[in-house]
Amino acid sequence: MLVMMRFPTILAADALLPSRIQMAFTLAYHVIMVPLGVALPTYALLMNGIGIFKKDPVALRIARRWSVVMAVQFAVGAVTGTILSFEFGILWPRLMGRFGAALGLGFAIEGLAFFLEAIFIGIYLYGWTRLRPKTHFLLGLALPPAGVLGTFSVLAANSFMQTPGGITLSATGELLSVDVLGALFPRSLGYEFWHFLIAAYMAAGFVVASIYAVAWLRGRRDHYQRLAFAIPFTVAALLAPVQLVVGDLSARGLVDDQPAKFAAMEITWKTRSHNPEYIGGLINGAGQVNFGIAIPSFDSVLIGLSPNSVAPGLTSVPADARPSIVEANITHLAFDLMVGLGSAGVFLMVWYFVVLLGRRHLPQSPWFYRVASLAGIGSYIAIECGWTTTEVGRQPWIVYNLMRVADAVTSAPASFVWIMLSALLVVYVLIALIFVNVLLGLAARWRHEDERELVRAPEEGAPYGPRPELASDGSVSPMGPLP
Amino acid sequence: MTAALASFTALVLLLTITAYSVAGGVDYGAGIWDLLAGRGARANRARELIDHAMAPVWEANNVWLVLAIVVCWTGFPLLFQSVFASLYPLFAVALLALILRGAFFAFRHVGVGPRGQRRAGVVFGISSVLAPFFFAAALGAIASGRVAVSEPSVPVWQACFNPTSISFGVVSLAATAFIGASFLVGDARRFGMPDMTDYFKRRAVIATVVLIIMGTIALAVMGLENSRLLSAMLTGLGTPFALAAVIFTPVVGFLLWRGIFLWYRTLSVVVVGSLVFAWGFGQSPYLLPRQLTIAQAAPPLGTEVLLSIVTLLVVVLVLPSLALLVYLDQRGALESP
Q: How much is the ipTM here?
């Protein structure tokens, strides 16, 4: 009888689970595309600028190759981003129906930014052979602001879900009026925006540099490798300590803005002063923490620079309005891992600058390059962890304190969402294979050309980009495997 | 004020859908002809041309689609919720087709060997058929009046698959093949491939005939099923656009049949645009026929104002840079790379 009673309840709410998994999966995937999309143009333009103003053909070659990666990467990001925008309708129609007029403001600006990025990446890619170098460089300068605008707008939308503002609701929850500035600049945007923008620039810088760190370990140590390593690595390393400060400000902002999320990050059960900081550890339903290392009072010190500072606990929020135990533990572990990786970034920064400033040359130790080659993947993991902290820590709300995830979900049958999720999984694996294959193919060809000192257009063989020039007889070159 | 801005937003939404139908249509159309090319030396040459023509489009057409979605959920949140709550299966299929298409287009270029390329081409072609069909079917489903406000009032499969939605899908396929062939004629001429000019000229003429037949059948189906929309299209604000489509479709076919290479691409854009406009204006002032008007679905004033500002910025910033990109595409290299 009990089983029969429970079965229909599970059926009624069951699109929720696959919808959450699908959204989490597709967002986690899309986030991988974001750092390079936002920040690679800046690194390519830095290289381009060095090439022009120092008259360095090697720097120009690097910049041009990076611009090809930019275009391929943009295509993948455009696809995964398009999927996300449809998912808002397919999975969360009621969220948009109720809050679209406010939540959509950021996305409307994102539409503009996305458009500008698409066009200017095209112009930059075409311009290498079709514009004078300085004109080309100046037009390219439109790309970083477009990336920043895109970051701002998406984070404005996300911040609205974290700390909704600028709206008036009727007693029944209908949206009555929207104050544009209030909705576009929610409280949490200040720290969310800077934290993510810096993260994107760090991750892009470290991941690009890590490719050339591997090249160093494999024995390539020429001007090309040094330049391509040093520029992105230096920028990313300089940002690492800044990120530690901004990250700390973000966490402290949550004490007031989203106390339940902060409590989950620190697995604090009861609101209290002299709260310990747990490194690792899991909380259980009775509020006990197992396995972790506790640093006495340190959480309170981090909040208010005094052990007397009061840290919010999970129980300060009713059980149905705060993250579940599992969600709290996920939030906590993701947060810890992110902080750990961020600290490792600062350590790497110190190592790099001690050598660079002390000996006036790039590090020569294989160990440095071994660690540096992991910095790319490490910063991507940190971004995924930060995003997990933000989103899982917000549960069970889709718009904090105003709408629950369960109330926003589609009325489509669960089977439909499971099938769509399975199809997306297959397709995304395929996209990853193609993406990696294209990049490896390009890299192999460029390496081959460098070894034999061949000079060819780097964009040849990429699936997207300017057409190859026509042969004199008017025929086009046949498509085919890469040479 | 709000009502005027809401009408403006509705026009922007219609224009974005039109832009996607045209730009996406050219792109999907090339995919359809890729699928229909068959095998052999001539088919390979046709595919070369298609590939060469499509290379500069790196998923940038998705921009129009994303813009349409964003304008819809910000400008008409209730419409967005209603449409997706009733028509999610159509969008899910269209979406999957859209991704597969992009993925397999890229896949053809990765070193996969001739057989892999052929298989990738088949997936690319089939998804080029599915995406426009299902997107247009969603518009047809809205026109049929089966999308209820907020939550579905009829079973979802009925809202998705009915005579009007299917006839919209079929007309869109014919129109996509039509505009695709017409642009491929232009590309073949631009790249100096006379054999391909003839090849796609013939196909454009066939597509014209198919479009006229399918359009007529669709009108008949709509007349039987939903005479209100048909009469609105033929007597209301949609009239001039319906007329333009009726007049210019055969003109394009005639021009290409006689080998008069003037205006045929512009006119095929006019035809596809008119078809979308005839639907949109035919429905006005309703977003969901007889259930939700533009004014009823309008968001609060602040949102309308910001949306209008963003629209103006798109016009001021995007159009000139788009023109520059097209110019760079058409212009050759300054020097060899």
A: 0.89
